[in-house]
Amino acid sequence: METKLSVKEIPSYLRWKDSLLDLRYRFDSNTADYTLTRLFDPQLEEDLERFGIMNVHSAKKHYSTEIEKAQRTVYFYRIANVMFLILLILLPSIALYFFRDSLTALVFGILFSLLMFFLVECFNQAYLNKFQQQLKDELNIEQRIQNSSIPFHENEVRVEGNAATVHKEGIGLITDPNFTKGNENIVRFRLEEGSVVPVVEIRK
Q1: Is the pLDDT of residue 204 over 80?
Q2: What are the residues facing 157 on neighbouring strands?
Q3: Transmembrane region positions (predicted)?
């Protein structure tokens, strides 16, 4: 996954935020490796694994490499900016202040450095936000949930009033307080308030 950010995209990606993604990672100072520890809210991750919608563990392992690339890119921009400011702006400004008694040069150097640091950090944040959007688009979690289903047999469901409880081996109890009648015995899913909600359909 390659992330490229143009100057025109910076304002829009600075404001970008997703309600589902909750990326967390751990940095190993010994190996300099990044390990992705969270993609979504823990409850959502548990639901995705439980219902077989997504192998969250494999996704974390795969995207740990992508996180590492993104963080190294941001680190490179940050270090390059600091080196540029020190060598070409701050040191000459300090030299002019001491040898030419130019306070203006020193003030200009400091203000320009602060401005450049701010702009580069804005670029880095927009870059990380675009990376997260690309990751979200690749995961396509909403479509995954919508396309997932679990068929069941008549002896695997218990109906009590409007509620239906499906028992599938390896998954456990799947309860829908308001099941629907349809053409097949199947459990479908929808995304609601950051969690996976099962929808039970029972053959008429």
Answers
A1: no
A2: 166
A3: 79-99, 105-123
* Strand-pair partners of 182: 203
**DSSP category for residue 178:** T
Evaluate the CA torsion angle 61, 63, 69, 71 in order and state its sign: negative
What domain range includes position 155?
Answer: 148-203
How many Å apart are CA 98 and CA 92, to the nearest integer? 10
Question: Are 189 and 149 spatial neighbours (Cβ–Cβ below 8 Å)?
Answer: yes
E runs forming strands in the chain: 21-28, 33-40, 149-151, 157-160, 163-168, 172-176, 180-182, 186-192, 195-203
Does residue 54 sit within a domain? yes
Helices 42-50, 56-84: axis angle to 10 degrees equals: 140
Which of these three, 118, 141, 164, is where a domain ends? 141
Quote the pTM value: 0.83
Residues 6 or more apart in contact with residue 111 via CB below 8 angstroms: none
What's phi and psi for 182, nearest 5 deg?
Answer: -150, -150
Token pair of 29, please? 């100072």
Q: Summarize pLDDT for 9-34 with one digit per residue, the tens.
A: 999 999 898 888 999 989 888 887 88
CA end-to-end span of the chain = 46
Same domain, 137 and 152: no
Mean pLDDT of 171-175: 91
**Helix ranges (DSSP H) in 85-160:** 91-100, 103-139, 141-147
Give me the sign of the Cα torsion angle 121, 137, 139, 65.
Answer: negative
